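In the previous lecture we treated proteins in isolation. Real proteins rarely work alone, and many bind small molecules. This record shows how such a complex is specified: first the sequence, then the SMILES for adenosine-5'-triphosphate.
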Amino acid sequence: MEAAHGEHTESREEEEEGLGGLTAEELRQGQEAALALEARMALSAQSLVRAEVDELYEHVRALGQGRFGRVWLVTHRQEGTVLALKQLPKASTTLRGFLYEFCVGLSLGSHAAIVAACGVGLESADSYSFLTEPVLHGDLIGYIRPKVGLPQAAAQRCAAQLASALEHIHSLGLVYRDLKPENVLVCDPDCRQVKLADFGHTRPRGTLLRLAGAPIPYTAPELCAPPPLPEGLPIQPALDAWALGVLLFCLLTGYFPWDQPLAEADPFYEDFIVWQASGQPDHRPRPWFGLTPTADTLLLGLLEPQPRRRSPVSSVRGFLGRPWRQREGEAEEVYPGEDEDSGQDCRGRTFQRP
Ligand SMILES: Nc1ncnc2c1ncn2[C@@H]1O[C@H](COP(=O)(O)OP(=O)(O)OP(=O)(O)O)[C@@H](O)[C@H]1O
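The predicted 3D structure, ligand included, written as tokens:
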């Protein structure tokens, strides 16, 4: 969604009236978060360890590869501590971009559903790296059974933990902006505990952003509309609430609700908008058939197209412990299985609905 990873390609307007509808309190919160991050980045720049990764750490195995970085399981050569090391090549990451992601991770402190940063940043000849706790059971995408989703209890546990992690991030004046199953790491084979990772896209509330590239299912509709200011849309936690709604739909059904939230381009989104506006049960789009009225209410709140009317991520708490799926039998096992029915799941954007 951005031109360059971690770089401040966005500009921030200082005047409240120029901030496309942010309240004074929202503006203050975002500005404080931005200042705190700048201060932390200045300090961290001075304390970077300058060494090659191999001098200090032994590679055990690769844990994952993203668009920007490679993540390794490593052990500290002297202490023997087992850690995850995210390595970002200098060819594609600026020092500022690296410091930004590193310091956002540090500023989130300790939260049970957020990958803990270790506070060590490394500058090597060709890369920047930082260390975090390792999470060893893969990411959530491997647990979502195509056309089925997760068992309800696991879906509700994930929902509760992710809502809590996002609430924490929002309370610090930040917007996460990259919620998707690939960024949710799983701590145990039964998917009891999950942790949010990858803070390369996290920004202070009110940062002005434009959508760069095609929208994905998790992109909120306000980002697809022409921005209220030439520099872009002042970002709000509501972006994360939307993405959480889409992710919960995937967990409960094994389908994406749509490919992109554009009624003119996506018939599934158009159907949803018609249902959402009419409130008529017989307008319910087919992919929603298996959900309960409780789940409908939760998801319709998170997936409210108007960001100011959208439910906050904390709304999830009020819906836990009640059935979200009408029939539970089809999704009893949690398993990190392979794609059973390629193209018809929520692992790719171009799946087909029933
Ligand atoms: N702490 C960790 N423990 C275990 N695996 C991890 C950890 N951090 C990241 N990974 C794995 O590495 C993958 C890539 O990491 P990450 O998402 O941080 O990279 P990225 O380049 O920023 O990705 P993206 O393309 O989503 O922006 C993750 O999907 C995950 O599988």
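Summary for your notes: Residues 63-69, 71, 84, 86, 115, 132, 134-135, 139, 182-183, 185, 197-198, 200 surround adenosine-5'-triphosphate (CB under 6 Å). Residues 295 and 324 are 5 Å apart (CA to CA).
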